[in-house]
Each structure stands twice: as C-alpha cells, then as structure tokens.
Amino acid sequence: MIQIKKFTILKNINISFEKGKIHGLIGRNGSGKTMLMKCICGFVKPTEGEIIVDKKLIGKECDFPKSVGIIIETPGFIPYYSGYKNLKLLADLNKKIDSTTIKNSMKQVGLDPDLKRHVRKYSLGMRQRLGLAQAIMENPDILILDEPMNGLDKDGVCDMREYLKSLREHGKTILIASHSAEDISVLCDTVCEMDKGFLTKLEQ
Length: 204
Description:
The protein is an alpha/beta fold. It folds into two domains: 131 residues, Rossmann fold, CATH 3.40.50; 61 residues, no CATH class. The strands form three sheets. A six-stranded mixed sheet has the order 6-7-8-3-9-10, with helices on both faces. Strand 1 and strand 2 form a beta hairpin. The chain starts with a strand and ends with a strand. The model has no long low-confidence stretch (mean pLDDT 89).
C-alpha cells in the first residue's frame, strides 16, 4: 500500500511477474501504474507490504534492484550534450561497459551514436529511443518501461515491438505500461489493469 497525505495511491496489491515474459500494465492516467513501477524500482517505499525483486527485499536487503533497466516518465538527459555523451556519462558511473557497448545499444534502437546533435534538438521519438538505449546498455535482466512508444512514428513503433520481442527471446523479463491496446495485445504474455490503485490480472 502507498499513502500520500492520507490519500491511498496503491491498495491491496498482490502480484508476481514470471521471469522471461512481457507483462503489460494498463489503466487510465492517475490509476497508479507509474507509482507501482516506482515502487518496484525502489524509488518510492510502500507504506505497507513488501516488494521482492530477484529474491531481494527492496528497501531492506537492497535499496534498488540490481540488473534493472528503467524508463519511467520522460527520460531526462543533459540537453547540450549529444546522445552518446549522455550515455557515456551515465555508463562511467558504474564502469560496467565500454564505448563500443554504448554505441551498439544506440544502434539497436535506431540511433546513430556518431550524431553530434545535442539532445535538446532531438525529437520526442529520438529522446524515447535514447531512453531505451540507456535502459538496455548494461544488459539488465529486467526492463521496466513506462509508455516506451511515446513519440515514435509508425515504423518506430514496429521496430520497437520487434526489439522487445527479441529481448524476451533472450530471457529478459519486461514490465510495460502502455495506453495502446495494440501494443499490449501484440507484445504481452500477461496483462494487469490498474484502476484507482487496485490491480486486477486479466485473462489473455
């Protein structure tokens, strides 16, 4: 459960997400989807209850889950740096990957790593692709993606769907929130609906 100023945001949620599948999360704006994702990532601690990721109790055994790539809300980048330089700065914090891996991650989502254009001049779709490149560049086991198709054109959406399917084939576990019924239908093995803080698992 999550309470903020006496308002209950998440209520009586009891769910598990199976490894190696794509799990969809649907619901109107304000239903609690993003808050649930923030809790799973350790950004917000539940008022009551427990969250376990990869057998670790979030907030007690670890502050943040390991091996998780995240897009929650609009990805934030330094606007006067290129896409590659933004990712390089982030990668240098953990020192897990080299420049070649960063560039390959950008290519996988349809971005040119050698493009010198500043991120402030990126389209919304390019920013979204850069956010996904950031999420995947350290080869995480789990991806938590809040509206990852935002700003993508028709071809971009098709490319991203195929890419997410390929990640599933490689054993990645993906939780995706989307307003697109087609995205959910095409991609997801399981679907849950958020409504006023309650979570219901839907039959596929």
